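All the exercises in this workshop are built on plain-text protein records. The record below serves as our worked example for the rest of this section.
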Amino acid sequence: MFADYYNLITNTHVPKSRYEAQRLLDKFRAYLGQFPQTTELAIQFLTQFKDRKLNTKARYNYVLSAFFSWYSGEKLPIKIRVPKILPQYVPGKDIDRLIDGIKGKKSHKKSIGRDVLLIETARMTGLRRGELSNLKVGGLHLEGDDPVVIVRQGKGAKDRAVPLNSYIRDQLTAFTKDKPHEESVFGLAAKTISLKIGKWAHKSGVPHLHTHSLRHYVGTTSFERHANPRAVQAILGHESLDVTMRYVSVIGQDTKDTMELLNMKPKGVSPEFIKTLQPAINAFMIGNTGSRLLGSS
């Protein structure tokens, strides 16, 4: 039965999602032993993870709920509300400090150029760590007036094209010169990228930065500079515009403009404007009093 379900999700899940689901279900199967799979035992199984992060518990609950929905049509009587956490605000100067720290490395000096370009590419494109790791030379279209990087099989198994500005286009052109199309641009695994950036961030005095911080920078900076929300959504590869609009909340642009309105002094009504309304006011007063005109007393 478990094997049948694994075959099913092979066709419906992207590799990473399928791997995570199968890993949890393998643990659940081992937990069951000789007992039949029931929602009661599933709930007991999930209590083992009560100390995990809320997002993790919600994901585990989703995986088991999907399994039972397929198996018996039942639903787990558990609802986990994951709070909507605002993205991190990342000042550009912090990324500059990170780059300066990399340039000042005393060891592995041959990799400095690659590592700086990795950071610059991430801050100029918003690519996720897995997308940076999977990026091939053949995915870079650097010729002409509209250079783009083609992201293959991004989150949700979707492809997208991300435009490149002239600065990063020139850097990538020089770095990938004479490299075959099938070669990895940076030659680093996704986990390695995270470990490297975490290590550099601590040494550079910006320990709050991580790989996804560079993606957050793209989102918040784009809205600070009044970018079109749909364009930002396309660049970051968000399925929902609601996710993209969280970056507006981070910079508080809409609310800031509203609060400035409260700081404005109200404008008085001019006597000339009142005179234009006098006939209507008089007619209204006659209708209500039958006798008295405004201003006649």
In short: The chain is about 55% helix and 5% strand.
